Amino acid sequence: MNDLAISQTQETSSPTKQPQKAVIYCRVSSKKQTEAGSGLESQEHRCREYANRHGYDVEAVFPDDVSGGGDFMKRPGMVALLAYLNAQSAHQYVVIFDDLKRFARDTEFHIKLRREFILRKAKVECLNFKFDDTPEGKFIETIFAAHGALEREQNGRQVVQKMKARIEQGYWCFQAPVGYRYTKSKRGGKELIRNEPMASIVQEALEGFASGRFDTQTEVARFLETHSEFPNDLPNGKVRVWKATRILTSPVYAGYISAPKWNVSLRKAQHEGLISYKTFLKIQERLKAGALAPARKDINLDFPLRGFVTCGDCGTPLRSCWSKGKCKKYPYYLCSTKDCASYGKSIRRADIEGEFEALLKRMRPSASLFKLLGAMLEGAWKQQLAQMNDWRKDVRKDVLKIEKQIDQFLDRIVETSSRITIKAYERKIASLENEKLLASEKLENSFKPKATYGQMLELSMRFLANPCKLWESGNINLQKLVLRLAFSERLAYHRIEGYRTPKTTLPFKVLGGFEGDSKAMVHPARFELTTSAFGGQRSIQLSYGCIGANFCG
Known about the structure:
Elements: H1 3-13, E1 20-27, H2 31-36, H3 39-53, E2 56-64, H4 76-87, E3 93-97, H5 100-103, H6 107-119, E4 123-126, H7 135-168, E5 180-184, E6 190-194, H8 198-211, H9 217-225, H10 241-249, E7 256-259, E8 264-268, H11 277-289, H12 297-300, E9 309-311, E10 319-324, E11 329-334, E12 347-348, H13 349-361, H14 367-415, H15 419-446, H16 453-465, H17 467-471, H18 476-486, E13 491-494, E14 498-499, H19 506-511, E15 528-529, E16 538-539, H20 545-548
Parallel strand pairs: 1-2, 1-3, 3-4, 9-13
Antiparallel strand pairs: 5-6, 7-8, 10-11, 11-12, 13-14, 15-16
Helix pairs in contact: 8-9, 8-11, 9-10, 14-15, 14-16
C-alpha cells in the first residue's frame, strides 16, 4: 500500500474533534437601558465574534437587565445560567463575558461566583481581561474586582447625593406618582406636572375622602376602579386598598415632599399640588381616627340608606339584607338590637326608600323663599370677602410668631449638650415647621375663592332647588352626598309611623322647605341671628355646600 493510501486510511479512522461548548452572559444595570439602548445586543454580538474566532459552539445566551446590588443570585439570568450548567454536568463549558464588570462588581461575590463556576467545571473567559490561575494572576483579578466594587459604591453614593440635593431643592426624583408625569424643567432637570385625566381622578378621590364623601379607604379604592383610565393592579380590574392608602398618605399630592431616610424634612415642592396642605392634614386626621365601619360592597351599593337611617324605637342604625324567596331575593331593612321592640322586624326597601324620596321632594322651597336665599348668599359672600384682609394680617402675625419660636429653640439646641433635650427640641421644631407650612399655605391660597360668586351660586342653588334630583341619579356616591348636605343628623324611621321629623342643615332650615313648617318674615336688610330685637346683630355663617367649601376657614 502506497503512502497516499495509508494517509487517507489514518484520516478516516481518527475521530472528528468536537468544538468546545460555550454559553454567553451579558448584563445591563436596568430595564431602561434595555429599552432605550442596545447594550445587551452589543455585548452578545462581541461575545459571538469572540466565540467564532476561537471555534466555540455557543449553545445559549443568558441576559440580565438588573443590577442585583453586587449579589449574582439576585440576577435571574445568572441563576438560569448556573442551573443550565447543573443540568449539563456531563459537559464542560466556556462562559464568555464582554467585560469583567459584567461578571461581578463586588469583591466578595466575585470570588464566590468564580468558585461556583469551578465547582461546575466551567471555564470563564472575558473579552477585556485574561483570567490566570497563577498567584500573580489571582492577585490582579482581585484588584480589578475590588476596583469594580469601589466604582459601584462610589456611583451609588453620587446618585444618592444628587437625589438628596434635588429633593432639598423641592423636586421629586422618584417614579412619578399616579396623576403626575415628568417634563423638562426650565430650571434644569425634570419636574412633575399634572397628567390628565388621572390627576383629576386622584384629586376627586382625595377631596372626597377629606370631605367625608368616602368614609373608608375601601370606598376610595372602589371609586378609582370606576374609572377605566386609572391603572388597576389586579387581573379582574380591581384596585388594592393599599394603593388607595398610599395615595391618601403621600404629601406629594399636596405639593410637598420629604425624604426621612435621607434626613430631608417636609418642605414645599416645585410642582403643583392636586390638593391643599390643609386638605392633606384633614385626610391624615380621618385616617388616624379610623373608619366608622368597614365598607361592604354587596350591601351598601344596594342599600344607600344603610347606616344613615336609625330605628325609631332604639335609635340604632338599621341594617339591611337580601331575603331569599321561592323565585327571587327580596331587599329589606331591619333592626338588629335584641332588646328593641322592632328587633328582626323587616321593612321593605321600597317602603323606606320610597318615603325618603317623598321626604326629599317636600324639601323643595317656594319661589319667593328661593329668591330670598339667593340674596342672603350674596350677602354672606360679600361679608366673607370683606373679612379676608383681617384674616390675612392675623395669619402673617402667626407666621412671624412661629419663626421666632423656631429660632428660640435652635438657640437652645446650640447651648445644650443633652441628647434627650436636643431630641425634644427637634420634635418641637418639627411641629412648629408643620404649623408654619400650614399657615403659609393659608396665606398663599386659602384666601382666594376657587370660583366666582356666580359659579358658586349656580351650583348651590341647583342642589337646594331640587335635592331629589341628585338622589334619583342612582349614583351611590351622589346619594351619600345628598344625605350629608341635606341632613345634620341621621334620620329616625319607625316601621309603623314612618320617618320622624328630620333635622336638616342650615340652608334648608332657612328655606323652611317642609310642608307644615312654620315660616316667618326675614329682616329686610339681611338674615341675622339677634340677641335682642334687631339690636346687637350677629351675621349667620352660610358656609354651606359648594359656597362654603371655597372660603378660608
